[in-house]
Amino acid sequence: MNKVSSRILAIVAFVILLCPGSNARATGDWIIENPTIQVQEDSERTIYSAMMSYQGRLLEDGLAVSGVREMTFSLWTAVTGGTEIWDMAPINVTVSNGLFQVNLGPFDETTIRMMKTALWLEVEIDGTVLPRQRLMGAPFAFSLAPGSEVTGSTVYAMFSAHNDTGNGIMGSSVDDIGVLGTSISGSGVVGRSANAAGVFGESTSDHGLQAVGYGPGLGGAALMSTANSDSGVGILAVANSSNATIISRNNAAGALFEGYAGDDDEFVPEFVVQNNGTVQQELGASGLVKAGYLLYCANSDSEITRGFNNVIGSGPTSISNLGTGFCLLDMGFDISESYWVTSNPAPVPFFVSCALYTDTQLWCQVFNPDGTTMVNGNIMLLIY
Question: What is the CATH number of domain 7-142?
Answer without folding.
Answer: 2.60.40
